[in-house]
Amino acid sequence: MVIADSLEKGGAEKMAVTLCRNLNPHHNISLFVLRGNNVNAEFLDIIRKEDIKYVLSKSNPLKTAIDLYTHLKNNKTQAIFSFLLRGNFYAGVIGKIAGVRKIYGGIRSSVLDKNKIPLQRFIHRYLHTATITNNYASIKYLSKHKFIEQKIKVIQNCIPIPPPSSIAGEREKVSILTVARFDHSKDFNTALKAIHVLNESALDFIYKIIGWGELESEIRELIKEYNLQNKVLLIINPNNITEHYQQADIYLSTSLFEGLSNSIMEAMSYSLPVVATKVGDNNTLIIENKTGLIVSVGDYNHIAQKLLHLAQNRNMRLQMGAQAYQHIVAEFSEKKFLQKYLELINE
Is the pTM of this model over 0.70? Predict the structure, then answer.
């Protein structure tokens, strides 16, 4: 069984659905969603298309716990994979009560909210068989906070890989793209400062920010503050995100911390060179001067320099983009992802 906190649009939810879809042909898999009131239509379509059994709990916490226990017992569940703190808690407590043999929790970032560390650590040490993290950077961090290193397993994310992108003709404007939640961890202030510096050059470009979240109004204010209304296009949760990847020339990520970034992986799968901060496992995705360029957190002047360098060198962009695609195919395929989960189940 896979336990997800919700099925709203997000990286953890995407990986929960991806895991179900890949395991479904091999095992009797089901998806239990703890907060099933708001469901992303795209995820639900995949679940139904792949004929995955699922439960969307819309009850209070006690009723949700009872329903989960009943589901685990009725299906004679032997293994649970959970995502995020709430999912890890329910998996650990209810899974133990129900007698599930293997319980694997999930941590998706290289840095945790300090208020959540004690509970996450207790669950990891006493209720779970092991903790699966999607990034190698988290091992040192978690060990420092007294997680048991031998119980930490790394399985990096995967993505469905599209056919290689055809080489487009040279565009009038260079298109820079960011796809991310609108929250502080993505550091849009640094991104927009870099774009402000870039705007002082003679480069003709457009910067698209695609996403959703509570900081939308703050980002709009920053765009006005830096006088970028003619250079920045803010797009809220579009249905045609593939087209935006296909129309872009460079991908930008200015995160303060990450696990393994799905959006960077998606950008690379569409043959985009990436400029990204040195956080999480970005250095396993971005091979310097081959698949992209790594910059320091918050260094907007350096980011602007890297963007300008790529924008002015089309052949370099195309070469890096091609190598980015090959790197994703070789290292982050669904086949490799599935194999690692099957190995855990079969241990």
Answer: yes
